[in-house]
Amino acid sequence: MQAKRNKIAPIGIFTLLFVSRLMVSMTTMQSVYTGIVGPDIVLSFVGALAFVIILSLPAVYCIKRKKNPFSVKWVSALYGLYFVLLAGLTISRFSYFASTTINAESSAFIYLFPAIVCAVYGAILGIEALTRFSSVAFILLIIGIITVILCNYRNINEINLYPVITKDADNILKNILVITTDTIEPALFLCLSKRVNGVAIRQYVFAILAFFTAIITLFYTAIAVMGDFASTQQFPLYSLFEQANVGGFERINVIHISFWMLGVFIKTTLLIYCASICFDKIKQKNNCIICSVFVLGTSALITKFNQYTNVVYSTTVIMFFAFCVLLPLLMLIFGKRNYGDELVQNF
Q: Which residue, 97, 117, 230, 267, is the most exposed by fewest CB within 10 angstroms?
């Protein structure tokens, strides 16, 4: 039992990655995509799904061949900085949404510190507690997605789904690039592989497939309900929740806000936890606190200079190919197989 502490079942990879990844797209601003949000955004998501699966192969084969980039200390430290930056970006996204949509009279900065405190507390509790919480959030997400679709069923107008193609090929490809590079799951999968009791490759693939299925369904419903009106909304999926109603109850958007809070907590906590285990010379609790301080500073800078869109466009593209594709590929080609982990697992 001692050897299995601080470990999770392979299904935990599925829930963690599904919940954290779904939050990225549910809370993405319309301005991130090229052109209007039309029916062909579904084509962009389908194309991105294919690219994510293909570009995940280096990370998957690193796990299969016991060549993990995190076994190299300086590479692991780079990944730690990568996770810190992404955690800061996640918090800044939430603060921007909260200060512009939930309470337009508030400052974005007042949401940063409480979010960091909650996230670092969750990271200190460890991966087991976070996995249990993500399992509950996963169930609530599925129920919420089904609810909002059913509540909007009467508002669906099929004419809004035509024409199927509203953008040229260049814009569709640009959207595929944005959606693909907004993915960090290969890096998270590599980092968490040592915390899994077994091999979770199948669960990783299922998480990617499940996420894209859910987000395609939500966007397709939003377009069918709102049509061109979706392109005028800063957060299209939030507006979809606002359109839903059950009888006299018309505050279904509360569900979206609740999901966003759950997702931000899970994703930020997961990123801080992963960053903390990238630096193994310090006690993990202290690592979590130190990483959270840097996350707070990063999110404050992004928020101060209002660089949300620019960070998404310029930085995430470079970081995705560097940390999710290039480094795993180099490790797969030139790295040495780590027999120590295999011996411990067999023992």
A: 117
Whole-number Å distance between alpha carbons of 345 and 347: 5
Could you give the CA distance from residue 323 to residue 59 in angstroms, rounded to a whole number?
10
Measured distance CA(162)–CA(327) in Å, rounded: 42
Report in angstroms the alpha-carbon separations of 48 from 5, 10, 176: 36, 25, 5
Rounded distance between C-alpha atoms, residue 140 and residue 134, angstroms: 10
DSSP-H helix ranges across 169-305:
169-181, 185-192, 201-226, 236-243, 253-277, 284-304
**For residues 203 and 195, what is the distance between their CA atoms, to the nearest angstrom?**
14
> What are the backbone dihedrals phi and psi of residue 246, each rounded to the nearest 5 degrees, phi first?
-125, 105
Contact 74, 81 (CB under 8 A): no
pLDDT in tens, 167-221: 777 888 888 888 888 889 999 999 999 899 888 999 999 999 999 999 889 888 8
Q: How buried is 141 (Cβ within 10 angstroms: 0-12 exposed, 13-18 middle, 19+ buried)?
A: buried
Q: DSSP letters of 281-318?
A: TS-HHHHHHHHHHHHHHHHHHHHHTT-HHHIIIIIHHH
**Greater confidence, 286 or 167?**
286
Question: pTM for this one?
Answer: 0.88
The two three-digit tokens of residue 84, written as one number: 């810190």
The b-or-e profile of 262-283 (16+ CB within 10 A means b, else e) is bbbbbbbbbbbbbbbbbbeeee
